[in-house]
């Protein structure tokens, strides 16, 4: 008998998301972190539209909303901060997920609120305990934690283990999972400041392509601003943490009396992807599975995607005593997607270097420009738990189903994902029926049948583009489309294929 259904190692953003999700499915979870407090140094600052939508699954979207600002846009600029090669305006845009493409948040505020939410959940939390080792026994996992205060070892057993223990993941090492190094490894200093007075800096993120020193400016949630500067190989990292050096670096934007330095850290930005995200019943998610330089602002988002992709599959597997077929789809779906994020984040860094070196931005190779700018559009899922096993654009399989929205005075009044529930949903604009056998299966997986009224469809161009009369979509708990009916695929056929693919 296991102590817990799932043990999560690491309570950073990825582990916290996984813990809240599993708890929302009623799974018995132990979550362990070696630290007592949340991570204190400057890290994630942007949350994407999908990040907000994933947050809705566990009710933390308001935590982000109350502590964030929409990003106005992004541009590559030269050393004089003049735009080169084009810029992107994002202000006022709403994606199919029903949120602005990118928002900027202050992580110390959000992480504390999320940790508090975890403490009020049913998740058993063990802080100041370090994961030491694990062993597989039959189908179960056993392992040890070390209490860092008194060095006492604690043993645990569980059905599933999730390693969300960051870039130097011991879980990954214990599972002997190697990594693919995409070879962007550079030292950067990251600085957060609090403005003393009114903000007079713009609302666009700037990639500063200065041959003397590459830099990034992020117009964080006010009163905060962020800068990142490349440290050259021949330079001493430690001097960059001194206030005088930081003031010199920021002098292009602000005078020292205009701000307070609140956080600073030197990081080596990596670009690595683990070759597997799973071994048996143990999984790795977040930075344990992939690390990207932060230029795309998608590292934590990738960790959230891992958690969201994995947790409903674990919950369904536990509740229905499934074999591993459903869980097999986790790494099939997540490895290519997270590799895209890592490659294209590094691509932005490489494009900055190329722009900085070029006499004329037009000299820069089209491939690099494509990679640098292409990163702003994330791919759909390609292979995995979809009708036919492969994403099919003709039925939107592998794409995210748009969020239903209610508008008031041309503004979003309510985001209505909750009508889809926590499990699968069949969604159409017209009423539909299923036979008894199909209905029994749908009830077993808590699938909801939803007919979206015109109130939802008329004002939502995203939904209009999906919902042609009579088409029925089968949408997964993570809001990705499994498949849709058409002249050759009936609703029975669609649902039966899901049952077979899950071995249920
Ligand atoms: C400068 C910078 C800026 C960034 N900006 C963005 C951004 O704007 N948007 C974005 O989406 N991403 C961004 N990222 C990436 C993002 O911060 C990371 O992807 C994210 O923090 C990863 O979360 P995680 O939970 O997977 O890992 P971590 O945040 O590293 O958490 C791992 C947790 O595991 C614990 N742990 C480690 N080892 C053990 C052990 N043996 N036993 C128990 N516990 C253990 C740690 O204490 C920690 O709490 C940025 C990163 C950097 C460096």
Question: Tags for this entry?
Answer:
globular; 7-stranded mixed β-sheet; FAD/NAD(P)-binding domain; binds flavin-adenine dinucleotide; alpha+beta; Glutaredoxin; 8-stranded mixed β-sheet; 504 residues
Mind explaining what this structure looks like?
By secondary structure, the protein is α+β, with helices and mostly antiparallel strands. Among the domains are: 4-70 and 101-180 and 272-335, 3-Layer(bba) Sandwich (FAD/NAD(P)-binding domain); 387-502, Glutaredoxin (3-Layer(aba) Sandwich). It is built from 13 helices and 27 strands. The strands form six sheets. Strands 1, 2, 8, 9, 10, 11, 19 and 20 form an eight-stranded mixed beta sheet that branches. Strands 6-5-14-15-16-13-17 form a seven-stranded mixed beta sheet. A hairpin with a 5-residue loop joins strand 10 and strand 11. The longest helix is centred in the last third of the chain and has 33 residues, at 325-357.
Compose a concise summary of this entry.
Among the domains are: 4-70 and 101-180 and 272-335, FAD/NAD(P)-binding domain (3-Layer(bba) Sandwich), CATH 3.50.50.60; 387-502, 3-Layer(aba) Sandwich (Glutaredoxin), CATH 3.40.30. Helix content is 29%, strand content 28%.
How is the secondary structure organized here?
Layout: E1 4-9, H1 13-24, E2 29-33, E3 46-48, H2 49-56, H3 61-66, E4 68-70, E5 73-77, E6 83-89, E7 102-105, H4 107-119, E8 124-127, E9 129-137, E10 140-147, E11 153-163, H5 170-174, E12 179-181, E13 186-195, E14 204-208, E15 215-218, E16 224-230, H6 243-250, E17 259-269, E18 272-274, E19 278-279, E20 282-284, E21 290-291, H7 299-320, H8 325-357, H9 366-374, E22 405-408, E23 411-415, E24 425-428, H10 436-444, E25 448-451, H11 454-457, H12 461-466, E26 473-475, E27 481-484, H13 491-502
Parallel strand pairs: 1-2, 1-11, 2-8, 5-14, 11-20, 24-25
Antiparallel strand pairs: 3-7, 4-7, 5-6, 9-10, 10-11, 12-18, 13-16, 13-17, 14-15, 15-16, 18-21, 19-20, 22-23, 24-26, 26-27
Bound molecules: flavin-adenine dinucleotide (FAD).
Flavin-adenine dinucleotide binds at residues 9-15, 32-35, 39, 42-46, 130-131, 164-166, 170, 190, 267, 286-287, 294, 297-301, 303.
């Amino acid at each position: 008998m296991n102590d817990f259904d799932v043990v999560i190692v690491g309570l950073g953003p990825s582990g916290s998301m996984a813990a809240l999700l599993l708890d929302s499915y009623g799974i018995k979870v132990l979550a362990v972190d070696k630290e007592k407090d949340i991570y204190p140094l400057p890290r994630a600052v942007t949350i994407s539209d999908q990040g907000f939508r994933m947050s809705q699954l566990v009710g933390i979207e308001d935590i982000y909303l109350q502590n964030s600002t929409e990003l106005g846009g992004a541009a590559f600029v030269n050393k004089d901060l003049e735009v080169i090669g084009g810029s992107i305006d994002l202000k006022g845009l709403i994606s199919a997920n029903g949120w602005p493409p990118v928002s900027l948040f202050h992580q110390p505020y959000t992480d504390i609120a999320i940790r508090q939410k975890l403490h009020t959940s049913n998740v058993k939390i063990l802080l100041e305990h370090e994961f030491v080792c694990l062993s597989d026994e039959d189908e179960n996992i056993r392992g040890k934690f070390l209490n860092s205060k008194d060095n006492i070892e604690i043993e645990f057993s569980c059905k599933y283990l999730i390693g969300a223990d960051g870039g130097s993941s011991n879980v990954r090492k214990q599972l002997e999972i190697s990594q693919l190094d995409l070879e962007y490894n550079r030292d950067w200093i990251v600085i957060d400041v609090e403005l003393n007075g009114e903000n007079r800096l713009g609302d666009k993120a700037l990639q500063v392509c200065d041959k003397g020193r590459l830099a990034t400016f992020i117009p964080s949630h006010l009163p905060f601003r962020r800068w990142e500067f490349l440290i050259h190989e021949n330079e001493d990292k430690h001097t960059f943490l001194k206030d005088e050096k930081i003031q010199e670096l920021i002098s292009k934007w602000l005078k020292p009396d205009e701000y307070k330095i609140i956080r600073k850290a030197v990081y080596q930005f990596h670009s690595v992807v683990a070759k597997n995200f799973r071994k048996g019943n143990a999984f790795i998610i977040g930075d344990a599975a992939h690390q990207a330089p932060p230029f795309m602002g998608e590292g934590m988002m990738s960790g959230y995607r891992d958690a969201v992709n994995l947790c409903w599959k674990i919950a369904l597997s536990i509740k229905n005593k499934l074999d591993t077929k459903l869980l097999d789809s986790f790494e099939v779906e997540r490895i290519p997607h997270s590799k895209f994020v890592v490659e294209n984040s590094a691509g932005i860094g490489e494009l900055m270097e190329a722009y900085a070196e070029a006499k004329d931005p037009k000299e820069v190779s089209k491939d690099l420009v494509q990679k640098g700018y292409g990163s702003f559009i994330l791919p759909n899922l390609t292979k995995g738990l979809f009708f036919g096993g492969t994403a099919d654009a003709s039925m939107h399989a592998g794409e995210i189903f748009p969020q239903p929205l209610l508008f008031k005075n041309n503004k979003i009044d309510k985001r209505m994902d909750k009508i889809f529930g926590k499990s699968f949903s069949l969604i159409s604009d017209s009423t539909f029926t299923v036979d008894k056998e199909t209905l029994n299966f749908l009830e077993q997986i808590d699938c909801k049948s939803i007919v979206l009224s015109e109130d939802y469809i008329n004002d939502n161009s995203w939904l209009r583009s999906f919902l042609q009369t009579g088409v029925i979509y089968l949408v997964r708990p993570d809001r990705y489309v499994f498949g849709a009916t058409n002249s050759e695929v009936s609703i029975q056929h669609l649902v039966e294929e899901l049952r077979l693919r899950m071995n249920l």
